[in-house]
Write a structure and sequence with these properties.
Layout: E1 2-15, E2 18-24, E3 27-30, E4 35-49, E5 54-64, E6 74-80, E7 88-102, E8 106-114, E9 117-128
Parallel strand pairs: 3-9
Antiparallel strand pairs: 1-2, 1-4, 4-7, 5-6, 5-8, 8-9
């Protein structure tokens, strides 16, 4: 399998296999703590080879710089099926998140595990916005 895209973004949709991504980012600005980010999406585009046909467990975990989880682990399942003679198939995975709360500024990370193995790690930062003079 090959991770073709792993992004934190404002929004995403999947229209019959076409992945549409809006506003990929790696920084969130906040004037004070704690803060909530109103809405975002974690997006994965994974290419599977024919030999990998079948069910695959997926887990996403958001952690802070001290490796403490930010909310629960998010578990899912991808059912990879081939319907033609293609050598590979793509699966798009979109996780919409609303009201993600941060208690402190700093570095965070989104870890992606497939079938129990880490396949991607996506850093992002929550930074203080300067106040008005």
């Amino acid at each position: 399998m090959n991770i073709e895209a792993f992004l934190l973004c404002d929004a995403a949709t999947d229209q019959m296999g076409k992945l549409n991504v809006l506003g990929a980012f790696d920084h969130i600005g906040a004037k004070k703590m704690p803060t909530k980010h109103p809405a975002c999406a974690i997006v994965c585009r994974i290419r599977f080879e024919r030999i990998e046909e079948g069910d695959h467990k997926i887990r996403i975990q958001i952690i802070d710089e001290d490796a403490r989880p930010l909310g629960p682990k998010l578990d899912g399942n991808i059912n990879v099926r081939f319907s033609n003679d293609a050598d590979s198939v793509v699966s798009n995975f979109i996780l919409n998140i609303h009201g993600l709360q941060f208690e402190k500024y700093g570095e965070y990370r989104i870890d992606l595990a497939i079938d129990g193995q880490i396949r991607g790690s996506l850093p992002f930062y929550v930074m203080e916005l300067p106040g008005q003079p």
